[in-house]
Amino acid sequence: MRTTLEERWAQFYRYGPYIALGLSTLVSAATADLLMTRREMYAAGALLLVSLALHVWWTRTASATSTARATPSTGTARPVPATGTARTTPSTGTDREVDGRGGVRVDGVAGPVYFVVRTVLAFALTWLNPFFAIYASLGYFESRRVLPPRAVRAGLLVTAVTMAGSQSGGLPPASPMGWAAFAALFLFNSALAVVMDHMEGKEGEKAAERAATITALEAALAENAALHAQLVVQAREAGVADERRRLAAEIHDTIAQGLTGVIAQLQAVSTTTDPEVARRHLARAQALARSSLGEARRSVHNLSPAALEHDTLPDALAKTVAEWAERTGVDARFTVTGTEEPLHDEVAATLLRIAQEALSNAARHAGAERAGVTLSYMGDEVTLDIRDDGRGFDPLAVPPRTGTGGFGLDGMRARAERIAGTVAVESEPGQGTAISARVPLVRHD
After folding, report:
1. Burial of 213 by CB count in 10 Å (0-12 exposed, 13-18 middle, 19+ buried)?
2. CB burial readout 234-263, b (16+ within 10 A) else e
């Protein structure tokens, strides 16, 4: 399993002080005869034991604090741009900060006390032997982790004092030249530490901003996923509703109208005594029944009307008008104006269904003696006009559709709107009716 960068920094904070203390002790012991007196050796030994005890205590304290504060699962993370850390607020009410390098901040007194005591011990050891600066360099890494934000730079400057003393030949400097070297090295170490801290702070701010951006993006993605799921449900429901309306309109325009014709023919049979006339009406009833059955099957499979299977729209309309005139006894004429063009299947089917519905209404309600159907090709649109000289009606006083009634004008408008068209009705009581359907001229693929 790969170890993350944060986990490596956590390991450094846990074991790094022991390694730095051991390495500086080995180097200092190798140079003790050259740089230290016997009394200084004993003093350094005592300080090393104190330092070791300090780190054992600090390791346990930091580990216990980290475990206690990481346990609650209700904590929420929020960025802290000023320090470049992320702060977690558990349900216990205490704060836990994690810096960009995986270090766990310990708020309260323990962290500053540890840093001050360790810095004093490191300074004293470096005073005795400059090579203990290896141990003192830990102050650069731990200041941000254990000190309050306002005290971080002070901790860096104190560490720079110890490092400059070691680099200039030991503390205290033995000559004016040594003091000059110490001052120059102190300025260099201080500037380097402050600049690195500033860059680390900026990087922490960027990391916090990236974390906030990622959180916002995750929230947006979750919201988008929820909206997508909602849209899918709505689209499915709309599709189901549209399919129901389509089937209802198709059934009305095929089965219902066909059954109406069958009933009319059978009624004609029951009122005649002439066998030849009865056979003629029975033949028409059979033909209507077969045609209606075929149209019902085509409607279920969402196919074009049978009349358009082998004929163009003008031919299909001409046959429809002729059959309707023969069946109803109404004098009906069909006219085509403009230059005929091949139409998209859906456009042709829509206009044919509108014509069938309008003629059916005229036969049932108008009591007309004459009717006319005109198909006009007008550039970028097609117009279908159906007129009759029947009894007419008030378009504003049309009763609402009931469970036993047809789709009528509402069905024609719905069909036209489905292909971005319109249906207009002009009628007055006793003055006949004119229905005009206008749809875009979409050519056949």
Report:
1. exposed
2. eeeeeeeeeeeeeeebbbbbbbbbbebbbe
Alpha carbon of residue 318 to chain centroid: 53
Model confidence at 314, in pLDDT bands (50, 70, 90)? very high
Please give the Cα distance from 154 to 198 (Å, whole number): 13
Q: Per-residue pLDDT averaged across 392-415, rounded?
A: 69
Output 282 or 51, whichever has higher pLDDT.
51
Q: What pLDDT score was predicted for residue 321?
A: 93
Map tokens 């005109």 to a residue: 374
List, in sequence order, every residue forming a beta bridge with 96; answer none if it has no partner.
88
> Would residue 241 be called left, alpha or beta, if left means φ above 0 and alpha means ψ between -120 and 50 degrees?
alpha
In angstroms, the CA 217 to CA 320 distance is 60
Chain centroid to CA 423: 39
Task: Report d(CA 215, CA 207) in Å as an integer.
Answer: 12
Helix or strand (DSSP H, E) at 375: strand 370-378
Q: 3-state DSSP call for residue 174?
A: coil
Exposure string for 11-36, b = 16+ CB within 10 A, e = fewer = ebbbeebeebbeebbebbeeebeeeb
Residue 26: both structure tokens together: 């080995």
Given its phi and psi angles, is residue 425 left (phi above 0), alpha (psi -120 to 50 degrees) or beta?
beta
User: Hey, what are 176's tokens?
Assistant: 């004016």
Asked if the peptide bond before residue 172 counts as cis, ω within 30 degrees of 0, the response is yes
Predicted confidence (pLDDT) per residue in 87-108, tens digit: 444 433 334 444 545 444 555 6
pTM, two decimals, is 0.45
Cβ contact 340:314 at 8 Å = yes
- Contacts for 311 with CB less than 8 Å, ≥ 6 apart: 319
Q: Which two tokens stand for residue 159?
A: 């560490």
Question: Nearest CA to 434 among 443, 425, 442?
Answer: 425
Nearest Cα to 375, choosing from 298, 299, 437, 322? 437
